Amino acid sequence: MRLHVADHPLVAHKLTVLRDERTASPTFRLLVDELVTLLAYEATRDVRVEPHEITTPVTTTTGVRLAEPRPLVVPILRAGLGMLEGMTRLLPTAEVGFLGMQRDEQTLEAITYANRLPDDLTGRQVFLLDPMLATGGTLVAAIDYVMERGARDVTAVCLLAAPEGLRVVQDAVGERLDVHVVVASVDERLNENAYIVPGLGDAGDRLYGVV
Ligand code: URA
Questions:
Q1: Which N-terminal residues, if any, form the signal peptide (predicted)?
Q2: What is the pTM of this model?
Q3: Which atom of ligand 1 sits closest to the CA of residue 197?
Q4: Active-site entry in 55, 93, 107, 119
Q5: 127 forms bridges with which residues in the sheet?
């Protein structure tokens, strides 16, 4: 697994406002959107491109365009949905799939309750969106899910990660270099309820209110 922590003052500033318990949902949603766009820039560093010839007003030159098959962006419901716009802003031609995963609050195991993804992901680059990499259970299940269907490389875009969760992902994927995690911050630890500390609370609740 390759880990990239977005070390940038704008990321740190926006993250600080996001963490603040006084930040209400509308501002929280806006900040998540902005942060994801900044993370998307890093996350797409290895997006596959192919040569593309064009004519400028002056001459003919060869640039690049996104290669086929198009990348697949997969928000993990519910909180990952808040990251979708920020990601597709930089990858407007990406296909979008959905994975509904929830952790069982007793066992803390990940349960898949919905999926809307192509059956065959052979050769696809997949970007998984999940704001909180806490225990790592959900992310490992999602990585397994897309890799079993043939995904060639998988990048998880997360706002915060706990060291414990990163270790779980690392143990599950080993030295595979085609699993990449991009985060805005690696926080201190998980608490007894598997919340990230200092964290930002429940990302889904803060994005959408408590349901
Ligand atoms: N999920 C959240 O929304 N917040 C945490 O701190 C951990 C998991």
A1: none
A2: 0.94
A3: 6
A4: 107
A5: 73, 155
